[in-house]
Amino acid sequence: MNTHEYLSQMESALKGLSDDEKASLLEEISSHLSEGQTDPQLGEDETPPLDRLAIEMGNPIELGRRLKQIHHPNRWLEYLMIVIPNIFVLPLIYWIITLLFPSNLSLLSPQKQFLYASIRVSIVVQIGLVILGVLIYKRQGSITGLIYWLSSIWLSIFSMCYREERWSISGTYNQSPGGLAESIFLNLFLIGLLIWLSRILWKIRDPLWFTFVALPFLTSLGNLVTAQVLLSGVFPNGYTLPDWRLGWFGLPQITVVIWPAIFIFPKQRIFRWLALLVNAFPFALMNIIASSHHPYLITLWVFPVLLVVINWISDSLSLKVKSKSVL
Predict the structure, then answer these.
(1) CA distances from 262 to 79, 199, 308 (A)
(2) I need a labelling partner for 302 at 20 to 30 A (CA). Which of 12, 20, 160, 179 fits?
(3) CA–CA separation, 143 and 201 (whole Å)
(4) Helix, strand or coil for residue 250?
(5) Which pLDDT does position 94 carry in this prediction?
(6) How far apart are CA 86 and CA 261, in angstroms?
């Protein structure tokens, strides 16, 4: 592969960036290639210097995608694909289903009918968002929306299986061949999604993205544990979160508008850590206040915030060490 071929492939991978950003990046990479060919260390074996340099820098298409993740063109697409479904689409689904209750699920109570229908419709919507995330990733190398909705759909299916006792042979839905087949399919789907998400995280190998995925998992764990505690009767007067509102929007809705903007639009890494903290802190604080007399629940809800803070500090120290080693 010569210099022209390498830059041509990388230019294709940079599709979506502005002409100025693309020209600047190609000029910088071209400069590295030219300088690298004069490096005597790249000519120690029979491999041509340019080929060895290309190996060091990585595949031009993959390098282009990594650069696009840094420069992040069309950030508003990923912002909207996180905010709009959470603020409007999914709540609208729940509202519509309350009006159009399924009447053919005679084995289920009205409350279970609502859960049965609403969670399945929301999963279909989330599948569409995952597909959109894949298309955005392939087109412009941005992976935020894909990882966000992959995590979300996994947790939605997991919660559905948990509520419907899909892992119990004596569960209501496993008493018929069709229900048992559905349970097997759902579990295989969960495994497939988890493998896909794990492969993405392994490929990135970045504590920032590990924390990004861990937060919704920890929040769901907190919700499940809290639900079990409620069933045990520890809270005879109910478990009420503080109603902090700004006009029509409660704190959860305000948070989901703010944290993606902080995470997606700035280019500096420190803002992404700040966004994760903004994402974790409000809901954790609401639950800590609601469970103020139960230390084990407080510990459970403090953990997501601690995870962000500890990984943020560790990541900052690691970057400082790397920068000193380069100097």
Answers:
(1) 10, 26, 15
(2) 160
(3) 11
(4) strand
(5) 75
(6) 14
Per-residue pLDDT at 106: 46
Q: How far is CA 152 from the centre of its chain?
A: 7
> Is this structure's pTM higher than 0.90?
no
Nearest CA among 186, 224, 207 for reference residue 319: 207
Residue 75: name the closest of 266, 314, 275, 286 by CA. 266
User: What's the token pair of residue 175?
Assistant: 């008493």
Nearest to 305 by CA among 327, 325, 278: 278
Predicted local confidence at residue 326, as pLDDT = 44
Instruction: Give the domain ranges of the chain.
Output: 3-64, 74-205, 206-327
Q: Which two tokens stand for residue 191?
A: 């495994």
Helices (H), the chain: 3-13, 19-37, 49-57, 60-71, 75-84, 90-99, 110-140, 144-163, 177-204, 207-231, 251-264, 269-290, 295-326
Tell me what pLDDT residue 85 has: 93
CA 297 centroid distance within chain: 25
pLDDT attached to residue 306: 96
Distance, CA of 239 to CA of 291 (rounded, Å): 8
Cα 23 versus chain centre, distance: 31
Q: Which residues contact 160 (CB under 8 A, 6 or more apart)?
A: 119, 120, 123, 166, 186
Beta bridge partner(s), residue 249: 246
User: Given its phi and psi angles, is residue 251 left (phi above 0), alpha (psi -120 to 50 degrees) or beta?
Assistant: alpha
Query: How far is it, in rounded angstroms, from Cα 137 to Cα 130?
Result: 10
Question: What's residue 47's pLDDT?
Answer: 47
AA letter at 47:
T
Q: Any idea which residue has 């700035």 for tokens? A: 266
